[in-house]
Amino acid sequence: MNYKTESPKIDPTLLKNPIHCLALGFGTGLAAKAPGTFGTLVGIPLYLIMQPLPLAVFCLITIALFIVGIWICDQTANELGVHDHPGIVWDEVVGYLITMIFAPVGWLWIVIGFILFRIFDIWKPWPIRMIDQRVSGGFGIMLDDVIAGVFALVSLYLLTLIF
């Protein structure tokens, strides 16, 4: 697919399609500023629902959301004609869930996990930036945020050892 070089404004009627609604974070991806940050917020209530589950179930659901996300994000990217349009935020939701896999219970850890994930997602240290630039399609859209989530997960876990 030939993608456009700039991100077009998203038509809000795309939210009527359940696939695009998920990819656009239930509309949070339509935010004029910081759609990735608003999209990550969608991960918090989902995390709160999943938090009491056994670790294996939490991980299986997160893996399933990643796999489905590859297809969801690919469909929306094709519809918009832009690889990894800033409005596509399902990858942020999954990245945040990965961040929170070993998080202790409590709002402090939810906020710290949120901040750590956003730092790694925005900063994009190696290899995140390379993957973001070189891996295309839904898999590429999802993979850079998965790795940002792993970086944030490790950082959060190390913080729990200190505090």
Quick summary:
With 163 residues, the chain is mainly α.
Task: Explain how this protein is built.
This protein is an all-alpha fold and 163 residues long. The protein has one domain. The chain has helices at 18-23, 35-50, 55-80, 90-99, 107-123, 128-134, 137-162. Helix 2 (35-50) packs across helix 4 (90-99), helix 3 (55-80) packs antiparallel against helix 7 and helix 6 runs antiparallel to helix 7. The protein is globular, with a radius of gyration of 15 Å. The N and C termini lie far apart (48 Å).
Supply Rg. Answer: 15 Å
Uncertain stretches of 5 or more adjacent residues: none
Major sheet: none
Helix content: 55-70%
Strand percentage, roughly?
Answer: under 5%
Total count of domains:
1
Number of helices: 7
Mean pLDDT: 94
Cα distance spanning the termini: 48 Å
Number of strands: 0
What series of H and E elements makes up the topology? Answer: HHHHHHH
